[in-house]
Amino acid sequence: MNRLPESDILRVQQLSPVLNGVFKLSDLQIVLASRNLKTLHNRITRLIKTGLLKRFRNGIYTAEGFSRETLSIRINPDAYFSLGTVLAANALIGTTPEKRLYAVKTGRSRCFKHADLVIEHLGISEALYFGFTEIQGVKYADSEKAYLDTLYYYMKGRRFSFNPMIDVDIRRLNRSRMNRYLTFYKNNRFVKFCRNLLNGQ
Questions:
Q1: What does the alpha-carbon distance between residue 100 and residue 34 come to, in Å, rounded to a whole number?
Q2: Distance between start and end Cα atoms, the chain
């Protein structure tokens, strides 16, 4: 195998900060100016062997210091951050799931692992795909929807690093918004469960 050109290393290093350390195959095809896929894969393999890139999964690669949030977005740009990821960011829980990112999307749930990082894209129905704001291409649930999403999956048997029934500062939640969001849920048992928690029962 021929020696890796210095230009390949420099191009990847220069673009890495722009892409927050996350490259898709299409990015590398442009960066390395390679139209031949076999040649492109060979050059990527050499970049991996040097340690400059790591293969996360087919078609997605990371560089040192990559952004976890960007990695999640590149996997699925429609998934919005929610659950403990948002509750911790908004200081509604004391524990921060540092090595786990939670996002919600339509369709079936998917789990992605990268070394000690776990990215969970939890599936939800289209009727419940709401309650988030997009900021510079990144979707974040508001605190109210993040809490409802947490309770939704908690009732489905999922457990977290915190107890959503007692560890969330619900005093800071907008009750009017919570009540409006609950009208979208058709499961009466779930709605009653949420209302009881909000009312301290």
A1: 35
A2: 68
CB atoms within 10 A of CB 176: 9
Give the span between the Cα atoms of 81 and 113, in whole angstroms.
17
- Alpha-carbon distance of 51 to 107, in angstroms, equals 35
pLDDT digits (tens, 9 = 90+) for 15-28: 999 999 999 999 99
| Residue extents of the structural domains in the chain | 6-62, 68-198
Backbone angles phi, psi at 15, to 5 degrees: -85, -20
pTM equals 0.88
What is the b/e burial string over 106-134, where b = at least 16 CB atoms within 10 angstroms of the residue's CB? eeeeeebebeebebbbbebeeebeebbee
Any residues with CB less than 8 A from the CB of 27 and at least 6 apart, and which?
Answer: 15, 19
Structure tokens at 9: 């290393």
- Nearest Cα neighbor of 164 from 186, 197, 187, 120 is 197
Nearest partner of 147 among 69, 100, 84, judged by Cα: 84
Q: Is 59 helix (H, G, I), strand (E, B) or coil?
A: coil
Q: What are 102-151's pLDDT values in tens digits?
A: 999 999 999 998 778 899 999 999 999 999 999 888 999 999 999 999 99
Q: Where are the alpha helices (DSSP H) in the chain?
A: 6-15, 25-31, 37-50, 68-75, 83-89, 143-155, 175-182, 188-198
